[in-house]
Amino acid sequence: MANKVTIQDIADALGVSRNTVSKAINNTGILADSTREKVLAKAVEMGYKQFSYANSVSDIIGTATVKKPLVSGDFALFIGGFLDNSHFASTMLDKFQHEITTLGYSMSMHRVTSENIESLSLPVSFNKDRTAGIICVEMFNQEYCEMLGTLGIPLLFVDGPVASYSRQLEGDFLMMDNSAGIFKLITDMKNRGVKKIGFVGESHHCRSFFERYMAFRNAMYLNELPIDEKFCLTHIQPHGTDYFAKLFKTLSSLKELPELLICANDFVAIDIINCLKLMEKSYPDDIMLCGFDDSAESKVMTPALTTCHIHSQAMGYTAANLLLSRIEQPDLNYRTVYTETNLIYRESTRD
């Protein structure tokens, strides 16, 4: 007598999880039609008892076109910090919400407080039972992100904690390209005879700041330019209420300024500009500056700020695709996706 075929047997034959096979056979959860049909075909081929009457998949689902069930569920946005209209994520989230609502999903916003992080607790507004996926923005605490990975819900991090390089999180990552613009800037500056270049911003604040700092160091190395460590202002103070005072003290104590200071983002650049005013210095006369993000402020400042433009709409579209594909194919390997950024020269680098 032949051995009884189990769900695990089918999963092993297809190289997918037992959970995926169960969803397909019982028509539960959210699964791509192609995945469901592949599982059902293998179940028929192997003689799975529930489908002993069937000769093909069409005997199970019928010959008519199968209608996709109405999608219902919520994408929970977890925010670890304040997002105003100048934050690149604001435009990104508008596009993300547009993409998911056309498919029938909704989006709810949940502020993760310091108390939540300390106690590793979920926001009281969060409802796990109706959540189809979680998207995290400004979530830089490794332990809290690890806790979210235990919920068994598709998870997407837009940027993330630096510790996640060595302690992989149970989710996909969406990042902007943090290197190309900085490499181009430093190469162009070398060709203009600029050699004294520094970097400012807490390098361990998040992945993107760390990658921008490493891009600075790598670009200096590849261009055979010396790195003066006194111009690397990367461990001043965690970003918060005391950051500006510590930044001013550090910058004003330098005996000389670099020719160019690359800032971790546009708002760090604005802090530097305010420090320069207190020092009775100005940009780009006394020092050239470059930011990152291409915020609204960078365009209207006088002089305008050289920066790297983030394609927020592309990030929003990509975020939706990453989470939706994770829902449809939960067995996919975790992915890290980068979207394009572009260096934009303005007056702060004498352009």
From TrEMBL:
Pfam families: LacI, Peripla_BP_3
Keyword Transcription: yes
Superkingdom of source: Bacteria
Ranges where the HTH lacI-type domain occurs: 5-49
Keyword check for Iron-sulfur: no
Alphabetical UniProt keywords: DNA-binding, Repressor, Transcription, Transcription regulation
Cited Gene3D superfamilies: 3.40.50.2300, lambda repressor-like DNA-binding domains (1.10.260.40)
GO molecular function ontology, one term from the record: transcription cis-regulatory region binding
SMART domains tied to this protein: HTH_LACI (SM00354)
PANTHER family associated with the record: HTH-TYPE TRANSCRIPTIONAL REPRESSOR PURR-RELATED, LACI-RELATED TRANSCRIPTIONAL REPRESSOR
Full protein name: LacI family transcriptional regulator
Organism, as annotated: Pseudobutyrivibrio xylanivorans
